[in-house]
């Protein structure tokens, strides 16, 4: 009985509700403001559309918060998942997302039930850091179509796709107004925190949100010609059909396994980082990896079956959640409820957001994910750790996420054994 109860929600998840709910509601709204432009951008980048991104953020955010194993995790669409989904959507269309999400989610739930969650602790930290850096690079490169107002030209890997997209944009004609929005959005995003501190603004407003609003007002006031998001349906539900997809059985199985492995790895990594940020990684309050897998698997299943995409724990939003003084999963639930309210009430405003601004926000987010200061510190450690980090990042960009982790982990352990023998 305890075996199953460890994988299910507990009353103890909300033991401190009366003491922390006010702080958690504020933290949840803060995360929701950060998550809004990211959800829109990831949905558009994937090819499923802005609504799919919002559906994923709302449904996956609530399901994973309730059923997951972390008190601090915030789930939804992520840049890492778009890396896997983009080539699938390009080849098989958005109709493939429902069967892929259903199968991938079931695999992740099965991984939790069979107690595979502890395996994440066996992945070396340099591999995790290289994985994160590689994701950041891929996210930035994926934004080229948005910031160039051009179509993405497919290629065998991210680098070649980016190069072909740039070449195509130049041949068609540079869209200078979109590049202007890119520059303005990035400037505001990185300058606002300094301005806020200088003016001693006590109310915390995420820089991404400020940058999006500023860029949108410029586009509206000066009638700048640049692609916009456009109107979104007022319902966070889209009918899906498992039989409508033309994806084959082999491609479905391979894609589902890739999505499931990524969802498991990124979610557990994010939960692990969250515990370290609040210094509970070795305490009884630390995240429950197997329950986290069950929660993330259910989140992906539900999200995919209502018109969304596969979801994972989001490192960037989880970090914002912790920095906003969240103390329980109430904040994650609040963030999803806030996004639902925004869609129902502020839909007309969202329609005027320029896609170049969303691309710029994700480029800025990729810089934050890469954490240059932390990267430099890692590169100054042992040669093995530094080499592993760089190799992993390169492999993520060139051959893909899952193979990059597998190859880098195996190489790391083999190299460690060889070096140990050489020292003897």
Sequence-ordered SSE layout with sheet pairings:
Layout: H1 2-5, H2 17-46, H3 50-67, E1 75-76, H4 79-92, H5 97-113, H6 125-142, H7 144-148, H8 158-172, H9 176-198, H10 207-221, H11 249-277, H12 289-305, E2 312-313, H13 315-323, H14 330-345, H15 347-350, H16 355-370, H17 372-379, H18 383-398, H19 401-423
Antiparallel strand pairs: 1-2
Helix pairs in contact: 2-3, 2-4, 2-10, 2-13, 2-14, 2-16, 3-12, 3-14, 4-6, 4-11, 5-11, 5-12, 6-16, 6-18, 6-19, 9-10, 9-16, 10-16, 11-12, 11-13, 18-19
Task: Describe the protein's architecture and organization.
With 424 residues, the chain is mainly alpha-helical. The chain has one domain (2-8, 17-376). It is 70% helix and 1% strand. It has 19 helices and two strands. The protein has helices at residues 2-5, 17-46, 50-67, 79-92, 97-113, 125-142, 144-148, 158-172, 176-198, 207-221, 249-277, 289-305, 315-323, 330-345, 347-350, 355-370, 372-379, 383-398, 401-423, and strands at residues 75-76, 312-313. It has a two-stranded antiparallel sheet with strand order 1-2. The mean pLDDT is 86.
């Amino acid at each position: 009985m305890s075996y199953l109860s460890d994988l299910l929600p507990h009353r103890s998840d909300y033991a401190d509700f009366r003491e922390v709910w006010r702080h958690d509601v504020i933290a949840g709204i803060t995360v929701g403001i950060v998550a809004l432009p990211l959800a829109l951008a990831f949905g558009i980048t994937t090819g499923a559309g802005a609504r799919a991104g919002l559906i994923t953020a709302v449904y996956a955010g609530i399901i994973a918060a309730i059923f997951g194993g972390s008190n601090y995790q915030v789930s939804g669409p992520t840049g890492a998942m778009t890396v896997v989904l983009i080539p699938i959507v390009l080849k098989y269309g958005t109709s493939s997302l429902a069967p892929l999400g259903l199968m991938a989610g079931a695999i992740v739930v099965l991984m939790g039930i069979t107690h595979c969650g502890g395996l994440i602790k066996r992945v070396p930290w340099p591999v995790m850091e290289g994985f994160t850096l590689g994701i950041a690079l891929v996210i930035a490169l994926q934004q080229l179509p948005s910031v160039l107002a051009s179509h993405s030209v497919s290629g065998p890997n991210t680098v070649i796709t980016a190069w072909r997209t740039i070449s195509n944009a130049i041949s068609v004609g540079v869209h200078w107004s979109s590049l202007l929005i890119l520059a303005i959005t990035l400037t505001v995003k990185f300058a606002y925190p300094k301005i806020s501190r200088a003016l001693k603004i006590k109310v915390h407003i995420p820089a991404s949100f400020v940058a999006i609003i500023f860029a949108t007002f410029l586009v509206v006031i000066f009638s700048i010609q640049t692609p916009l998001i456009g109107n979104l349906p007022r319902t966070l539900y889209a009918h899906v059909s498992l039989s409508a997809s033309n994806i084959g059985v082999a491609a479905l199985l391979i894609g589902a396994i890739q999505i499931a492995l990524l969802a498991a790895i990124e979610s557990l990594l994010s939960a692990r980082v969250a515990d370290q940020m609040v210094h509970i990684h070795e305490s009884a309050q630390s995240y429950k990896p197997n329950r986290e897998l069950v929660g993330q698997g259910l989140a992906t299943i539900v999200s995919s079956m209502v018109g969304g995409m596969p979801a994972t724990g989001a490192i960037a939003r989880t970090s914002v959640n912790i920095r906003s003084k969240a103390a329980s999963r109430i904040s994650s639930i609040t963030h999803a409820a806030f996004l639902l309210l925004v869609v129902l009430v502020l839909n007309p405003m969202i329609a005027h957001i320029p896609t170049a601004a969303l691309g710029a926000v994700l480029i800025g987010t990729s810089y934050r994910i890469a954490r240059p200061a932390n990267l430099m510190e890692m590169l100054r450690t042992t040669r093995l750790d530094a080499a592993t980090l760089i190799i992993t990042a390169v492999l993520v960009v060139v051959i893909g996420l899952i193979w990059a982790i597998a190859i880098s982990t195996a190489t790391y352990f083999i190299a460690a054994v060889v070096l140990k023998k050489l020292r003897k």
